[in-house]
Specification:
This protein has helices spanning about 5-20, 35-55, 70-80, 130-140, and strands at about 20-25, 30-35, 60-65, 85-90, 90-95, 105-110, 120-125, 150-155, 170, 195-200. By secondary structure, it is α/β, with parallel strands linked by helices. α2 (about 35-55) packs across α3. It is globular and about 50 Å long.
Length: about 200
Amino acid sequence: MENAGYKLFELHDAQKTRITGRYMLVDDIEIETIFSANEIKVRIEELAEQISSARLQNLLVVPILKGSFIFAADLIRALHGAGISPEIDFISLASYRGAATSGQVEIVRDINTPVENRDVLIIDDILESGHTLAFAKDLMSARGATRVMTCVLLEKPTKRAVEIEADFLAYQCPDFFVVGYGMDLDHRFRELPFVGRIAG
Ligand code: IMP
Ligand code: MG
C-alpha cells in the first residue's frame, strides 16, 4: 500500500532540486535548503576519516540531545565504515538563553556510562555561544576522561561567548536560524533530511 505522506515528500523534493532550489512543506511553509541531504552524507564520510585519524582509544561517543540525534546516527554509521566501534550514550542538556541567565546549562538527562580513563567524542548540532559544548566538555574531563574531543555539524562563528572550537566541524553556518536534520523551531522540522532556513 502506498504511503501518501512519503509520496508527497518525493514530489516536493523533486521540485526543489529541479526548479527552485527550495523545499515546500505541505502546510505552505517554505524551507530553503542550505545543506542538502546528499552533501551532508559526503561531508560526514570525510569527518569519519578525520576522526579515525585521531586514534581515539576505548571510545565513548556522547551525542547531546535532542538536536544532534540525526547527525549522530549518520556519523556513528560512518565511523563504523572508518573502522571505529565506539560505545554510545546520550546526554540531554538545556541552556537558558534569556538575557539575565545567559550561559547557564543544565543536565536534563545524564549519561550513565563511566568515562574515567577513556576517550570521549561529544557530538552536537550547532556551536553558537559555546556554552553547551564547553559545559559538556568540562563535565567529561572532570569525570576523568583521558581525551575529550568534539564534533559539531554547524558552527556560527559570530556569536561565541566562550573560547572553544570544535575539533571536527562539518560546516560553518551563516548567521540565521536553521532547522532540519535534527534541529527544530518550536519542536518542529527535526524530521527534514536536510539543513534549511525558513524562507520569507
Ligand atoms: P550554544 O553554543 O550554547 O549557544 O548552544 C547552541 C545550541 O543552541 C545548539 O545545540 C542548538 O540546540 C541551539 N541553536 C542555536 N542556533 C540554532 C539554530 O539556528 N537552529 C536550531 N537550534 C539552534
Ligand atoms: Mg542543541
